[in-house]
Each structure stands twice: as C-alpha cells, then as structure tokens.
Amino acid sequence: MAEELNPFKIAQEQLDKAAEIMGLDKQAHAILREPRRTLIVNLPVKMRDGHTETFTGFRVQYNDARGPAKGGIRFHPAETIDTVKALSAWMTWKCSLADIPLGGGKGGVICDPKKFNETELENLARAYMRAIASFVGPDKDIPAPDVYTTPQIMAWMLDEYTRVVGHNDFGTITGKPVEVWGSEGRMDSTALGGMFVMREAAKSLKMNLKKSTVAVQGFGNAGKFAYTLSKKMFGSKVVAISDSEGGVYDPDGLDLQKLEEAKAETGSVKNYKSKNAKAITNEKLLELDVDVLIPAAIENQIRKDNADDIKAKLILELANGPITPDATDILFEKRAMDLPDFLVNSGGVIGSYFEWVQNISGYYWDTNKFHTELDKIITKSFRDTVATQKAYAAKKVKINERMAAYVIAVDRVAKAMKARGWY
Ligand code: NAD
C-alpha cells in the first residue's frame, strides 16, 4: 500500500492537523496517535472439503476513555492491520462527535467471503468470536457488522460468545437480527443518519433537494439505503449508482426494481438497462455533474489526482475514509461542502448505541422513537460542526468541515482522559 494512501497514516495526519489547530496538549496527542490495544488472531477454519484453512483476524480498541470500545467487523480480502487501526481511530472520533458514551474499536478478517458457502462463513464467524471473546463484552468492546458482514453473522458470533462465557449477553454485539434483540430501525440507520445530515446541509447551502441530482458509489447496506431514502424523503433524482464491478448512469433517474434485477441476474448494477442508461466506471461516477455525491463503498476513492474533477457541491462521505487529506484540501478550495465520514455515517453507530442501550436495560423501543432520537443526535452533531467552523472563521482561521468535527471530537476524548488521570 502506498504510504500516502495508508489509512492509518491518514488518520494520524488528520489528528496531527486537528491537534495543531486546537493547541492539543502534547501528552494527550501522543496517547491519541496510537491504539490502546491491538489483538491479532490466527483462525483455523474447517472448509467444505474437510481441509482446514487458516485466516488472520484483527481487533483493535483505539480509545475507551469515554466508554467501551465500539466498532464493526469487516471480512475483506484486502483487510490490513493499518486499515483496522485507522477505522478504530475514526470510530473514536465518531462516538465522541455524536456525544454518546462509547469509545472506538474495529475488527477484521483477511478473507474473501464471496468464495464461502454458508457453513464456511458460520465456521469463520464462530472461530473469530472464540478468538476475541475474552477481549470483548458489553462493558469492554461491542462489535457490529461492517463491509461484507451481516446480521446473521452477528447472530452466530453472539451465540458463540454465549457458549464461551456461559450466559446470554445480548449487549455484546449490535446489528443483530431483531429475533435476537437487534433493534428495529438499525438496518438502515447509517443511511438514514446520512439523510438527516443531507437535509441540514441542503438547508445551509440553500439547495432544494427535490430538484437535486444525486450519485451514489456503492450498492451495499449504506449505498442502497442512501439511494432509496434520498428518493423517498426528499424526492431527489438519483442518476448514478455503482458496485465493485462498475456503475450505471441514467439522466432520467434510476429504478430500484431494475437495479435489483440487474444485480441478481448479472452480478452487477452496471448491466442495468433502460432507454437512456449507460454503464460508467466508478471513477467517472465520482466526476459526474450532480448536486450531491455520496461515496458509500470503500476508502481512498477521491484523491489528489481526481479531486479537481469532482463537480458536486455537496459531498456526503457515507463510506469510511473515501477522501484523502490532499483531496479534502482541494475540495475545500473549490468551496464544495465535504462532510466527513465520522459525521455523515455516524447513524450506524448511533443506531448500534440504541440497540446496546435497549439490550442492557431490557426495554425495547419502537421504530418511531429510534428515528426521532437518531435525528436529534446527528442533527446536533452537524450543527456543532458548522458552529465550530464558524467560530474559527470569526478568529480568522479557515478550517474545513472535517477539521471542525475533529476539534470537537478530540477535545472531548482529551478531556475524558485528563479527568481520568491518563495525563
Ligand atoms: P457492503 O458490503 O454492504 O457494501 C459495499 C459496497 O461497496 C458493495 O456494493 C460493493 O460492491 C461496493 N464496492 C466494493 N469494492 C468497491 C470498489 N472497489 N469500487 C466501488 N464499489 C465497491 O458495505 P456497507 O455496509 O454498505 O459499507 C460501505 C461503506 O460504509 C464502508 O466504508 C463502511 O465502513 C461504511 N459504513 C457502513 C456502515 C453500516 O452500517 N453498514 C456504518 C458506517 C460506515
């Protein structure tokens, strides 16, 4: 991995910048540059032909000064320890910006889940949980789904955890199916949170979302719900969407049923057919002349080599780390509003927080309450971010939205560490 695209170097660089802007105490800065705990596990898994294959897994607890670590688990062939470290740092800032009582963590296994049958997937999920069981728990570290992991995988992991510890503890893992006390509303909470941010950002940009065009990169949990909700909530026209194979552009707007059919029948949305639709690459999708661009797939998609070609006025980072620091600076110069991942996609962890709260209290909410509480928390995060940016501007210091969010988040974690006597 090129050093400049190493996500952990990027996360450290972002922290360094925030530390400089806010005059962060040097001792606090040193603690926050590295994860508190890193676990690397070796996972023997029985495969369908009877042989045992060995996979490498990670779990990182970046910081737990404000509460137990919280963060998803990814099953991905390109997973690295540095990706997991970066994501766990971003989880720390995400929970802090949302002002919820959780720290940051992340996990991952290097594997290609597309090649597994269901039994192999279950065997791997159970092997991973067995290996990290003593490291996690409702008061220590609470995992959740992420790229290529599902509620079913969370249910297997929960079950394995109960076998290890000998009792039920539903607050150990979130993003579970509702049958095992997952939360109503959690499934689309990442995208829904992103939509509440989109609504607030559009207000501040005086953008009419009903007349706006949207392009979404990614057709997974985050991307697909961003597509459906932006149409349903605002009446926006989604003109492009993609998956790992490529994308489709239709100036007349896209139809969900046809997208689902193209995906199911051919394996990719790029084969979507309609009168004016044409296949486009993931690179071209990012450069479309749309009002709102939603990267909702993987990291490092907008870099210094293509940032100048981005035309959207509002960029909502629903994926984690889709924009490199150089590219953020270029977008800021172009006066595009680029709202950072740990604000835009925090609906996922806020939803997980609600699930955990319900699990540990044993009292369950309806979807309505879930949505109202999510709106309240994420709207406040957006407003805090914009207010901080304005407060710096009043002192003649120009900072982008990411740095404004960082300053708020880092300050809260540093204050918690100080109060606990860590420095
Ligand atoms: P997912 O596995 O459901 O979907 C991932 C999507 O990205 C798929 O459509 C896949 O085809 C596409 N993709 C993979 N490689 C690609 C490539 N090289 N180019 C373009 N597209 C590619 O995952 P998800 O849960 O939707 O997560 C997407 C992003 O959102 C990730 O960065 C994740 O960390 C972030 N996120 C997700 C949640 C959540 O609750 N699901 C919460 C917070 C952040």
Helices and strands in order, then pairings?
Blueprint: H1 7-22, H2 26-32, E1 37-46, E2 52-63, E3 69-76, H3 81-97, E4 104-110, H4 118-132, E5 141-145, H5 151-165, H6 189-205, E6 213-217, H7 221-234, E7 237-243, E8 246-249, H8 256-266, E9 278-280, H9 282-286, E10 292-295, E11 314-316, H10 325-333, E12 337-339, H11 341-344, H12 346-361, H13 367-394, H14 401-420
Parallel strand pairs: 3-4, 3-5, 6-7, 6-10, 10-11, 11-12
Antiparallel strand pairs: 1-2, 2-4, 7-8, 8-9
Helix pairs in contact: 1-3, 1-14, 3-14, 4-5, 6-7, 6-12, 6-13, 12-13, 13-14
Bound molecules: nicotinamide-adenine-dinucleotide (NAD).
CA-to-CA gap between the ends? 34 Å
Shape verdict: globular
What small ligands are held by the chains? Answer: nicotinamide-adenine-dinucleotide
The assigned CATH architecture of one domain is: 3-Layer(aba) Sandwich
pLDDT averaged residue by residue: 96
CATH homologous superfamily heading of one domain: NAD(P)-binding Rossmann-like Domain
Per DSSP, the total helix count is: 14
| Strands in their spatial order, largest beta sheet | 9-8-7-6-10-11-12
CATH topology of one domain: Rossmann fold
Strand composition percent: 15-25%
Q: Segments where pLDDT lies below 50 for 5+ residues?
A: none
- Rg from alpha-carbon coordinates: 21 Å
Mind summarizing the main beta sheet? 7 strands, mixed
The total count of strands amounts to 12
CATH class value of one domain = Alpha Beta
Give the ordered list of helices and strands.
HHEEEHEHEHHEHEEHEHEEHEHHHH
Bin the helical content: 40-55%
What structural category arises from helix and sheet content?
A: alpha/beta
